[in-house]
Amino acid sequence: MIRILGLDVSKSSVSACLLTEKPEVPRQFYYECPFNFFSANAQGIKQLLELKPDIAIMEPTGVNYSKLWGTHLARAGVEVRLVGHKELKNYRANHLALPDKDDDADALALACYYFDYQLDQRRFIQIRDRYIVRIRELVLRLAHLNRVQSPIINRARQDLAWQFPEVAQVKSRRGEAGLAPLLWGWLAEIRKSTRYDRLYSETVGLGITDTVREHAKRICNLQREEHGIEGELRELLADSRFDAYRVVFKKFGFGERVQAVLISQIYPIEGFLDANGKPEVRILKGRNSKKPTKRHLSLRRFQKALGEAPSMEQSGDKKKTKVVGGSDLCRKSLWQWVYTRIEPKRVRLKNEIGKSLGEQLDAEKTAGRPMRLVRNRIAAKAARLLFRELVKALTNCLE
């Protein structure tokens, strides 16, 4: 008899529901089930493992919260499967008709979800190997450091506008081997610069305060941490399993950060293909035309993973399209790539990919369409081209 554990993870605890079969009336069972509650400490982990589950079903509740419980379960030999937030929400409300969302209802829904979909692997989020898990942790850390730095840099520049206005808008970048950016290093008094010494001696500003120097030290420390993370990412991406992916990425002019973000989301490409390792295409009747229509299911899954799959919403006579689900980090990375590598003609990619995307961008821009919409369309098209290139390079099965 298989023991299935539904586990709803909170910041410092979990709600657990252990089932050996799906209850006939889940809504009634909800009021009778002996749910377990465990705290995130040694005693809680011990009590959880004493339930002796065979399979644990969880949501990917952040890198930090679910990682603790998932790791201890995996070490104890328990198979861990993840269910997407949107999928669980729909299943809990529409299939089980459980009461309003709470931790116990989620735990019960997660356990029931396994019994209904255990044979359909696509119903579960892919559990990545340790390389991919680590890459994802690092790209999320880089994104966090970027968010932390921005307000500090902005505050420092605002103060420099009256303390040392001659350098308030200087763009200072990290040097080789992780050397602190010259401006911030000089302000933090950890780097020397005769140029800044001279400018400061002639400044019309009111003088640098200790607050700005402390800001500069924080910026240098964050930049140093970024350099260390980038070094580890570089080593991970150098693994031979990613060689073919990086060859394709080079055609698109993706930098190392964008490559890491993409790898963390799409590796392996076979996860998007059918059982024969080919793009899944089905002929279905069109909803409006009623004619046979090709549905590129693998491509759609790939686009959704990158946050570039638009969904149609209709209410009465109103129709609108918006992007739902997928990786916000991927979507942002692709948008920034369009902004820096496709939109500026002087640095645009000098190949068929750059030409195709650039011509469409220029045409839509000339037509007066909003640039936000244009960039989003180009990013979506780039995702489609990327899928085709990856499939062609890695499987040799694209028609």
Distance linking N and C termini: 46 Å
Total helices: the number is: 15
Largest sheet, strands/sense/barrel: 5 strands, mixed
Shape: globular
With strands numbered from the N-terminus, the spatial order across the biggest sheet is 3-2-1-4-5
Q: Give the % helix.
A: 40-55%
SSE run: EEHEHEHEHHHHHHHHEEHEEHHH
Cα radius of gyration in angstroms? 26 Å
Number of strands: 9
Class per helix and strand makeup = alpha/beta
Can you tell me the number of structural domains? 3
What does this 3D model show about the protein?
The chain has three domains: 4-123, Ribonuclease H-like superfamily/Ribonuclease H (Nucleotidyltransferase, domain 5); 131-237, Helix Hairpins (Orthogonal Bundle); 265-395, no CATH class. The longest helix has 34 residues, at 130-163. It has 399 residues and is α/β, with parallel strands linked by helices. α10 runs antiparallel to α15. It has a five-stranded mixed β-sheet. The chain has a two-stranded antiparallel ribbon with strand order 6-7. Helices cover 54% and strands 12% of the residues. The model is unreliable at 312-320 (pLDDT under 50).
